[in-house]
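Handoff note, outgoing to incoming analyst
You'll be picking up this chain. Sequence as last confirmed:
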Amino acid sequence: MFTLIRDPTDTVISAYFHFKHLVKLENFDFFDQVSNMQTKFLLGYDIFSNYQIKNSDFNNLIKLIEDKKLIVGIQKRKSMIDIYNLLELEIDEVDNYILNKKVGISYKKKDVSENLRKYIKKNNSFDYRLFDYVMNS
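Most recent structure output, in case you need it:
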């Protein structure tokens, strides 16, 4: 199995702008409820669950990576289409829902304050540990 992860703060901000029309939460309410989404996903939990990741969970995840049972890469490209091209998938082979689900959703870096970015980073420590581990492996 393999997966691609991205910068945890960017992931949370992207989720906020994608889901804000559905969840009707203010910024900090959303960011309080959403943490370590990428690590939760890889552990088999719903990304919006209240599950509190333990160090033993994280260590088991790292062991899967070290044993090459899970390959984790960093998604540094701006477009998922680039990843499909890298995997040599034709665009018509990819689920159109995935490609089109963010149509009409846009935001700029200036839309999110530096204080909010710091807050997000603090609330996503396991995702940052995973991101740093993969970046330095």
